[in-house]
TrEMBL record:
GO terms for biological process: negative regulation of cell division. Residues 63-281 form the CobQ/CobB/MinD/ParA nucleotide binding domain. NCBIfam families: minD_bact. The keyword RNA-binding does not apply. PANTHER family: SEPTUM SITE-DETERMINING PROTEIN MIND HOMOLOG, CHLOROPLASTIC (PTHR43384:SF6), SEPTUM SITE-DETERMINING PROTEIN MIND HOMOLOG, CHLOROPLASTIC-RELATED (PTHR43384). Belongs to the ParA family. MinD subfamily. The lineage of its organism: Eukaryota, Viridiplantae, Streptophyta, Embryophyta, Tracheophyta. It comes from the Eukaryota. Pfam families: CbiA. Coiled coil: none annotated. This is Septum site-determining protein minD homolog, chloroplastic. It comes from Durio zibethinus. One of its GO terms (molecular function) is ATP hydrolysis activity. SUPFAM superfamilies: P-loop containing nucleoside triphosphate hydrolases. Keywords: ATP-binding, Nucleotide-binding.
């Protein structure tokens, strides 16, 4: 993973390792644009590939990605985090638990390859390995859909059936996956209860608006009541310009309201719509987008069960008119 190191440069900078190369020449930058101190010193950054993430916890790790409110980016998060984990070398099985309204196959570009679902597996019409759809780009990533679009589940399907499914994935001959990601449906009805039953950790996706935060707070309580204590959140669709203008809550405000560890912050990006329509996740874009890089960093933290710290975005001073001199 990329790690950022800062070096205070002298006129003749030195490096600890000959493999480090500066991304640009600090002499070409004007110090006044970097810092406003009386005696500025040029600072440049060096990016390096220094290590691979170390998988923490017992495998497989069953993670449910939920939010409560619809449209906040659960499926987008599942697709991008899942493929990021696969690119890091971990085996991943993504389960689309949204019955009748599945969309994960569309975001991954696998909609034409889903021939069997979990319903056919439970009915004995096919084997589990036949229902798993292996991604051609990354062979260690597989998709499993609960049901076909516009279909209904059998009455007996519930949390126990999904637990059996997870146990079957653990007992596969080719080995247990490192991660099992469950894309949870919106709401807190039976579909939500079914999706969270086999999970031992959760990723809560929310946006910085009051409706999403209220639903997220409610879902956090339900997850804790179900025994899931390892809950981290991803704040999606963040716009720093609106935060500076006091038109959007900051990530610090969101963290104070929910009281959860922060897994990642995803900026607003127009490439999300383009990648969704193409069935090509953001993390595969070249050159990478800001949102794609943020998803990769969130996947890295998920592997090591780490979290990040939110930083305060300074608010822009309000514009003062001519009459402000007279107290207006």
């Amino acid at each position: 993973m990329l790690s950022l190191q800062l070096f205070c440069a002298n006129p003749k900078p030195t490096f600890r390792s000959p493999s480090f190369e500066p991304l640009f020449n600090p002499k070409s930058l004007k110090p006044s644009k970097l810092y406003q101190k009386s005696k500025p010193s040029p600072i440049y950054s060096v990016l390096q590939w220094n290590r691979t993430p170390e998988l923490a916890g017992e495998t497989p790790r069953v993670v449910v990605i939920t939010s409560g409110k619809g449209g906040v980016g659960k499926t987008t998060t599942t697709a991008n985090v899942g493929l990021s984990l696969a690119r890091l070398g971990f085996s991943v099985v993504a389960i689309d638990a949204d019955v009748g309204l599945r969309n994960l196959d569309l975001l991954l570009g696998l909609e034409n390859r889903v021939n069997y679902t979990v319903v056919e597996v439970l009915n004995g019409d096919c084997r589990l390995d036949q229902a798993l759809v292996r991604d051609k780009r990354w062979s260690n990533f597989e998709l499993l859909c609960i049901s076909k679009p516009r279909s209904k589940l059998p009455i007996g399907f519930g949390g126990k059936a999904l637990v059996w499914l997870v146990d079957a994935l653990k007992a596969r001959e080719e080995g247990s996956p490192d991660f099992i990601l469950i894309d949870c449906p919106a709401g807190i009805d039976a579909g939500f209860i079914t999706a969270i039953t086999p999970a031992n950790e959760a990723v809560l996706v929310t946006t910085p608006d009051i409706t999403s935060l209220r639903d997220a707070d409610r879902v956090t309580g339900l997850l804790e009541c179900d025994g899931i204590r390892d809950i981290k959140m991803i704040v999606n669709r963040v716009r720093t310009d609106m935060i500076k203008g006091e038109d959007m809550m900051s990530v610090l405000d969101v963290q104070e309201m929910l009281g959860l560890a922060l897994l990642g912050v995803i900026p607003e990006d127009s490439e999300v719509i383009r990648s969704t329509n193409r069935g090509y996740p953001l993390v595969l874009n070249k050159p990478p987008t800001l949102a794609g890089l943020a998803f990769e960093q969130a996947a890295w933290r998920l592997v090591e069960q780490d979290s990040m710290k939110a930083v305060m975005v300074e608010e822009e001073p309000k514009k003062r008119g001519f009459f402000s001199f007279f107290g207006g």
